[in-house]
Amino acid sequence: MCAHVFLFIIFTVNKTNSRKMAQFNFYLRNTKAKEETYVNLVVTYSGKRFKFFSGEKIHPKYWDKDNQKAKRSFTEAPEFNQRLANILRDAQDLLRRYLNEHDHQEPSEGEFKKLLEVEIKGTKSGIPTNLIEFAEWFIEKTKAQLITEKRDTKSIIAGSYEQTLNCLKDFKKDKNRRVDFDSMDDDFYNAFVKYLEKVKTITNEKGEKINKYGFSLNTIGKHVKNLKRILNEAARPDIAVNKFISYKRFTVLEEEVETVYLNEDELQSLYDLDLTSTPRLDRVRDLFLVGCWTGLRFSDFTNIKAKDIQGDFIHIKTIKTGEKVVIPIHWQVKTIMEKYNGLPPDISNVNMNIYLKEVCGKVDALTVTTETSKTRGGMKVISKKPKCDLVTTHTARRSFATNMFKMGIPTITIMRITGHKTEKNFLTYIKVTPDEHARIMMGYFQRQNKLRVV
Q1: Gap between the Cα atoms of 100 and 93, Å rounded
Q2: Long-range contacts, stretch 431-435, CB < 8 angstroms, 24+ apart
Q3: Are 22 and 39 in contact (CB under 8 A)?
Q4: 413-445 per-position pLDDT tens digit
Q5: Dihedral pair phi/psi, residue 87, rounded to 5°
Q6: Nearest 5 degrees, angle CA 173-CA 177-CA 183?
Q7: Helix extents (H) in 235-278
Q8: Nearest Cα to 262, choosing from 408, 385, 399, 404?
Q9: How many whole angstroms separate alpha carbon 146 and alpha carbon 302?
Q10: CA 39 to CA 51: how far, in whole Å?
Q11: In whole angstroms, how large is the CA radius of gyration of the chain?
């Protein structure tokens, strides 16, 4: 049986001999889990707190919360507790050595976490070799990294991987198939894609029948892309738990989806709406216009701070990519800023999408029926709806890219503001009809004629 696990240690961290306590605590990721869940090491010192993914898993019923170790009833308790004790010892020794080697100057959260990764994960031990468990490990590692980088985690990156992992688990259970690194072949790919395509009716906890899966082509492509990312991570030289390469032939399915944008006249009509009697709609309309004239994502245009406004420009570091962009302030945005003495108060994405449809429904030009199509469940689905019902917060970003393109602003300049890395990805935002392309070209012809006459 291993020695008792000590949970904290005291260090002298400066020359004035003031003492600060560094705490090292083990917590379960999910104390209410009905199956095994991961154990995280939480390190706290000088007001700083961050989680380190230990790679160890245990069922909550075997976890001794007070002593932060496995109960004796757990079959592998001695070995399990010894591994936790080793992690604790390594973390304590690492902090002690760092303070001694750096004249008692404390490391930053990110710096200490990276050192801890090297110290404890310096070998491949502890990294799951099963695909499902490795995916869980990878997601936890991704979350911890994004938290350290101060980036929104769940809704942007880690949440997407979790959705893919849930699809894999459902596929494994429903089809009674083995899902592991060595089963990633063409047969698995075809069966998995077909599974995601097919609509499945289930009964939820409320007894309601709902449709699950029957995903669109682009959603299926997202899950295949996420799976390949996990498989590639497992094949990295410093991890190398995946030695199989047949998944290289997995095709990331995608199609260009017909989505809407608002042209300059429609944006002006929105701007001219008198919504003073309904403040919630007034605020949503103003926030949406800020997005339409900055090209920022929802998470960014609702997060613009006073410090980001420098003269006639917005200087902001985007949340999703960490890209620094500089955006000129459009006259409508400037007027909105004067109205609120800053930017409008933010709102949740869900509520804003609901209110946006109500706002746009007040503009006659946006109540016309619009036809869109996408591949869902392996079939081309055509739907007809009023344009106002198709407007979402992301329509703002598409509207910016398309309107700037129609104005003749060089693609590279627009991309520097939207933050797109490749022209291929950027062009998916351009929603110009054949008629509009023809009008753009006619505009060039007319300008050439005027120059010829002169």
Answers
A1: 11
A2: 431/259, 431/260, 431/261, 431/398, 431/402, 432/402, 432/405, 432/406
A3: no
A4: 988 888 887 887 787 777 766 776 677 777 767
A5: -65, -45
A6: 130
A7: 264-272
A8: 399
A9: 20
A10: 10
A11: 27
Q: Residue 176 corresponds to which amino acid?
A: N
CA dist 454 and 432 (Å) reads: 32
Torsion of CA 76, 81, 84, 89, to 10 degrees: -140
Contacts of residue 219, defined as CB under 8 A and 6 or more positions apart, other chains included, come to 196
The rounded distance, in Å, linking the Cα atoms of 158 and 29 is 15
pLDDT category at 156 given cuts 50, 70, 90 is low
The pLDDT-based confidence of 120 (bands split at 50, 70, 90) is: low
**Residue in this structure with the two tokens 């329509």, named with its chain if needed:** 395
In one letter, which amino acid is 442?
Answer: M
Find where tokens 């955006």 sit: 327
Beta strands in 110-205 (DSSP E): 199-203
DSSP state of 317: E
306 token code pair: 């006073």
Please tell me the predicted confidence (pLDDT) of residue 274. Answer: 95
Measured CA to CA, the distance from residue 268 to residue 400 in angstroms comes to: 13
Helix (H) or strand (E) holding 324: strand 324-328
CB 325 within 8 A of CB 318: yes
Q: Which residues contact 407 (CB under 8 A, 6 or more apart)?
A: none
Q: What is the pLDDT of residue 277?
A: 95
What is the bridge-based pairing of β-strands 63-64 and 37-45?
unpaired
For the chain, what's the residue count?
A: 454
Which of these, 259, 250, 253, lies nearest to 376 by C-alpha position? Answer: 253
Q: What is the DSSP letter of 422?
A: S
Cα(16)–Cα(274) distance, integer angstroms: 63
* Cα 102 off chain centre by: 36
Structure tokens at 431: 């929603």
Cβ atoms within 10 Å, residue 446: 10
- Which residues are CB-contacts of 35 (< 8 A; sequence separation ≥ 6)? 59
Indicate the residue type of 98: Y
H or E element: which one contains 395? Answer: helix 395-406
